[in-house]
Amino acid sequence: MQSTDDAELVHLARAGNREAFNELIRRYQRSMWGLAYGLVHDRFEAEDVTQEAFLRAWRNLDLLADPAKFAPWLRRIVFGVSIAWLRVFRPDLFRITDVTSDAELSRRSDYTKSAFEELQAIELRQRIWDAVARLPERYRLPLTLFHLDGLSHDKVAEALGIPISTARSLVTRARQKLQPMLASYAADLLPALEDVFREQVPGKSTMLHIADGESVAGTLRKSRIPGVVSVYGDLMDEGPAPAGLDDEAWFDVRAHFIADAQYATLDEARQYLKACENTLQAFPHHEEVVIWLDSKLTNQLMLIKMLDWFSRRDLGQTKLSLICIGEYPGQVRFVGLGAMTADQLASLADTRLAVGEAQYRTAQEAWNAFTAPDPTDIERFISTDTSALPFIATAFRRHVEQFPSFDNGLSRTQRQALSVLNERGPLSGGQLFVAVALQEEQVFMGDLSFYRMMGELSDACHPLVQISDVPQSGLGNVTITDMGRNVIEGRADHIQLNGIDRWLGGVHLKGATAAWRWDRASKHLVAR
What we know:
This protein is an alpha/beta fold. The chain has helices spanning 6-14, 18-40, 43-59, 70-89, 102-108, 113-118, 124-133, 137-148, 153-160, 164-181, 186-196, 214-222, 247-260, 266-281, 297-311, 342-347, 357-371, 376-382, 392-400, 412-424, 429-437, 447-459, 482-488, 494-498; strands spanning 207-211, 228-231, 239-240, 288-294, 319-325, 353-354, 465-467, 478-480, 500-505, 507-511, 516-519, 524-527. Strands 2-1-4-5-6 form a five-stranded mixed β-sheet, with helices on both faces. The chain has a three-stranded mixed β-sheet with strand order 3-9-10.
């Protein structure tokens, strides 16, 4: 594979070809070790840092936006692992504000003729790296973070635990002292020097970032990623989502559901949905639109809705990109983009993927299945190749578990809630919500939706739970009733007792019997 370029090796590795990734390791192991050693200044620790960086690259290879840029992407990973090591094992390195004397710096950077002769066979960029590595550590790290990892002065200060003024001073003085160290190569190095030490910030093109809510949007605005941040946040895991509606009819159906659920007034709901639509309509004013979402069901439904919408428009020169993750290094239980910091979100900017024909096609098929009146369309879709949108199949599998179960008429969330109450006794609404949420493989339902569901069980003709006085926000104490125990233990059926009037995507379940049930034994939907 020696003649294969990086992009082709990345494509092969993504397809499961381990030898292709081994070739990437062989190509970059030495230079990445050199980078790690230049930061941590310990040969053995540099080996561990390099191995960890390659492991993270392998696990996150699908997040690389441009396979041709594997090398700079890998370099940023090495940077991150190295800085993490330094912050754990060298926490006091930058705890003082004075700087090393010019005399000491001059002594440390005194190149000999033989040292330069040894660099004759090395690429120009490697010469720069070698010069940077010879800077004292206090200068080398701020210079590296600022110019090569693209952090602003305040972010450098935050990363190293020093005042902003000190970070700015260290970066400036390091650049000044680096120039004479490279003087004899000035003519050759000037173009490379300009390229390597240009501040690495996201592109200056006009960008529109679309998030699922103000939590993520607000953090994105703090991340210093250039562009406008807007919200598209219709939570379509609840309420009607029937096929065949034009935009106005869709707004009307969704707005009435939001108002009936008392999440907002009808006018507020219409204004919000119109604002979501305006977010999408703004694409011609931007060179690139970046959709930021994660793997949970609500986000996956927004994703297929937006991609279906964009697939029916002429985007002209506007590029559509996607950042969609289901995990993040260092987070044992990933709860979504909303729990991430501005720096963590900024680290994802270069991992965005261009939306192509495969993503559009998969989204269209997924949206058609979700809005269909026959839920088995979803099961048929799941059985196809959905790899272009890697989280949609798992999200849909969780969605169909919300259909009334074959054995007692409860959805999975209802069953989990009654089981907790039956085992543990009365709980506050907040305690019950947390207990049920912990039974999910990933974040599934927000607290307001959960409280609404519990309210329906309490207000039913034959209540399955009893709720004490509801406080101003949240839910009062929740207790399972005798009928609730009968249902959870399989002696009664919730739908036969209380009927149903619920939309799940394009399926409207209504009446004394549910037309579709979820069979937990076979893990399939069955008609009744």
